[in-house]
Specification:
The protein is mainly α. A three-stranded antiparallel sheet has the order 1-3-2. The chain contains six helices and three strands. β2 and β3 form a beta hairpin. α2 crosses α5. The model has no long low-confidence stretch (mean pLDDT 91). 65% of the residues lie in helices and 8% in strands.
């Protein structure tokens, strides 16, 4: 059986399905962004900061549904590259982040690679399914990140 034509087995677990899809998407975006020196997670952070302006690290973590340890490690690398700028808040534990000029330049270099992947996936899924999937993934994230239980 040809590898590309093989049907993936159905996973009964929603978490397993989303994680498998997430890994496949991340690999696709990482491959496309590799010539720019960015990883998909870094691109997403640059994109959020570009759209939102200055954010606290806590707010950025909530927007991305990312745990603090992983976010801190990624931000350290990005700060070292000069892509993000930070300042301390009134509480010395608080960090405010914004896109640095080098980060804006890096984001602009990466955008055509990202747009190509976006268009490729949309073409393969079809415009309606692409929009529906985008909306559904946002809804699932909103439901699962709400404080309180899921009942």
């Amino acid at each position: 059986m040809n590898e590309t034509n093989r049907t993936l087995p159905d996973l009964l677990c929603m978490c397993g399905n989303f994680r498998r899809a997430s890994r496949a998407l991340t690999q696709l975006y990482d491959d496309a962004l590799r010539p720019t020196g960015l990883r998909a997670t870094q691109f997403t952070i640059l994109q959020v900061l570009s759209r939102a302006g200055e954010l606290s690290q806590g707010d950025l973590g909530q927007i991305l549904a990312m745990d603090s340890t992983t976010l801190t490690r990624t931000l350290r690398i990005m700060s070292r590259e000069g892509w993000i700028a930070e300042r301390r808040g009134e509480d010395r534990r608080e960090r405010w982040l914004r896109l640095a000029k080098a980060g804006r330049d890096q984001l602009n270099r990466a955008l055509p690679h990202w747009e190509k992947v976006q268009a490729q996936i949309e073409r393969q899924l079809g415009a309606k399914r692409w929009r529906d999937l985008h909306q559904l993934s946002n809804e699932v994230t909103a439901v699962l990140t709400r404080k309180g239980d899921l009942s």
